[in-house]
Prior knowledge:
Helix content is about 30%, strand content about 15%. The chain is an alpha/beta fold. It has 3 domains: about 30-185 and about 385-555, Rossmann fold (3-Layer(aba) Sandwich); about 190-365 and about 575-580, Dimethylsulfoxide Reductase, domain 2 (3-Layer(aba) Sandwich), CATH 3.40.228; about 600-725, Barwin-like endoglucanases, CATH 2.40.40.20. The two termini are about 45 Å apart. One ligand MGD binds next to strand 20.
Amino acid sequence: MKRREFIKLSGLLGAGSVASPLLLSGCTEHPLPGSGTLAETPTFCDMCFWKCAGFVHRENDRPWKITGNDQDLHSQGRMCTRGTGGLGSYEDRDRLRKPLLRVTAKDGSQSFREVSWEEALDFIGKRMQSIADRYGADRFAMINHGYGARHFKHLLRAWGSDSHAEPAFAQCRGPRDTGFKLTFGEGLGSPERTDMEHSRCIVLIGSHIGENLHNGQVQTLSEALRRDVTLITVDPRFSVPAGKSRYWLPIKPGTDLALLLAWMHVLIDEELYDQDYVERYTTGFEQLKAHVARYAPEWVWLETGIEPHLIRETARAMAAAAPATLVHPGRHTVWYGDDTQRSRAIAILNALLGSWGRKGGLYIQERVRLPRYPLPPYPEAKISFRDAHGDRWPFAGQGVTNAILEACIGEDALYKGLLVYGTNLPMTIPGIRPQLRAAMDSLDLVVVVDTMPMEITGYADVVLPECTYLERYDDLRNSGEREPSLALRMPAFEPRHQSRPGWWIARELGHRLGLQKYFPWKDYSEVLDWQLKQVGSSLKEMQQIGVKVFPRTRPRYFAEGQEVRFRTPSGKIELYSQQLKDRGFDPMPEYTRPASPPEGYYHLNYGRMPAHTFGKTTNNPLLFQLAPENTLWVNPLVAGELGIRSGEYVRLANPDGVLSNRIRVRVTERIRPDSVFMAHGFGHRSRRLRLTEGVGADDSDLMSNVLVDPIMGGTGMRGNFVTIIRERV
Ligand SMILES: Nc1nc2c(c(=O)[nH]1)N[C@H]1C(S)=C(S)[C@@H](COP(=O)(O)OP(=O)(O)OC[C@H]3O[C@@H](n4cnc5c(=O)[nH]c(N)nc54)[C@H](O)[C@@H]3O)O[C@H]1N2
Ligand SMILES: Nc1nc2c(c(=O)[nH]1)N[C@H]1C(S)=C(S)[C@@H](COP(=O)(O)OP(=O)(O)OC[C@H]3O[C@@H](n4cnc5c(=O)[nH]c(N)nc54)[C@H](O)[C@@H]3O)O[C@H]1N2
Ligand code: SF4
Ligand SMILES: [Mo]
């Protein structure tokens, strides 16, 4: 039975309204000559997940600009293009304005009606209660992304549900963190613990830093380049960092694991690895040595297209700079389905070079010991996110979005209700649209909390408009870093329209569910002030300074000869993984050859562009001006063969017959003839995104071949092929 129609968001456009000029408490003011004031309030950016701290400046209560906070290690006082464009998210005329409720007309057609917060929250509260009464509170799940989701995680934990997942795991960095955890007992964190500012050699496998604009990372890589670091970039595309590299290795797509094993082969064969470090800290070296013996550069050349002398030369360069050599772990690592193993190979290579815990390699992070606001303990949930994937992926240490969604389908589904916070699932999880539709037909309640009328809102029973990060308090930022520090996000403006902060929405729902004792505050600033006072600061102080850096309590690197117990079962760095072996996986990474594109098809390569974050900024009026559409990179040989030129529009089709939106061609030597490339985040379908709707192509449309990582459930996206179809003129 089809219960819920996908609602195309076409109506409800409404006229733009002006921000209310109310003055907020806690900002720093400067009188202007004549009349009026300049004011600034601290924030940390939410335009991507790096969380740079800065200040929002207003002139007479009108938005003026956003600048970086000099005290902040994430931004080093500078925001990136998207960060300064954050004001566009506040000003976007297409923002969600009021809560929307799905209604069914007499003729059976469904649409959204604008309702009051009272009505929307009452509706959700009643449905959630009835799910709890019939099935149990733990039969409710959440898929979320972004810092603001913490308020909703708190709400659901307080209610008794512990099933949540974010695309940051199974669509992003899950394989990397799993591979490193299996090897070193720990993941990389965000910001990653990469000590690039001190590196003498850096190896980037993919990792297109400079297009991938994680601010502090771009700056520390630039510093390293100024110091003449040896940069080695492995990328089938001539990426921005490839252009700054001493060695660019234009690898055949999907063969990186072979190259990594060949590098280990050379380091061991020529005795260039850090013998003291390996002896002191690792286990399984002899097995590794035997394992990589067969990955000679001559053999690996045939797989990767990288000549043997280059493989040897680059391995020697890494060894010469070690331990100040960083083989960068990457971030978006869901590529070909063997991703945890590829990440393990990167981890092992770092271990052979002695980089983990060493200056110029991977440093030891520290965060502030910040007490939690005193609240009663959460009730125990019988079902957790682990029940959604079960034994399928034994090393999935976090919720797997795709598994949670599958567990929403059918009469006997595990989950009966779903909250989606800050993630646009149809564009984010490859191949998920059929499951989304099926879940819609099964679930008793779907709530979407977003700032924009994104595609995901069309699946909701209720859409709740959150205000942007510029209009709210959130939890203090307390990320592991070189120096522990706290950063404050506070409202620079009153929420526009009828949008509300996440903490307020969560509290209001909490009250409707009888959870008052978990929400004893009137305003979230009370929580922050209490926490800050526990560590010798206060809300008042942070409203002035934005970022407070605390002294480290332990060293950033291992001391010479220090005894270290790693958080692995053996207490050592596990070059050979008994854990993997026990669960039936290869204990050391094995290379398998990826599939090649059929005749007339190309690898679908994708990545970031500097001016946008996925699809969430393409409608931002400031950033849209800078980069209105994505382009398709095509090698001149291919362009010549097909007779296509730069600037013309084409479509792409995959072997399953899926046809993309139109995309403009860019003919360039920077891409291999076996691949095409586009930035992710375009090709929106929601008609309420008036700038970006229908502009450019969406890579996720074309990803019908999802290569799932058997170790942790990541959805490998790079096994997709496309053919180019010329538009008739
Ligand atoms: N401007 C901007 N910056 C961002 C983001 C954003 O949306 N916009 N998003 C942030 C997030 S969440 C993430 S996860 C990161 C992602 O950024 P990264 O972690 O850097 O992503 P990668 O997938 O490693 O990098 C894409 C690169 O991999 C190359 N590549 C493709 N196939 C292969 C292959 O088989 N082998 C090798 N060696 N390389 C290959 C592509 O050509 C491309 O240059 O970016 C972050 N930074
Ligand atoms: N095809 C394809 N798929 C990918 C990738 C790819 O390169 N190609 N990259 C993968 C990676 S690395 C990642 S990290 C994920 C990212 O996946 P997502 O985080 O889902 O990325 P977006 O599509 O930008 O969706 C963000 C959503 O949050 C909403 N939003 C923005 N600000 C706020 C806010 O303050 N409050 C609330 N409530 N909502 C807000 C936006 O309007 C939007 O709907 O995608 C993954 N999926
Ligand atoms: S890297 Fe740019 S978009 Fe991301 S948090 Fe920093 S300033 Fe904002
Ligand atoms: Mo990501």
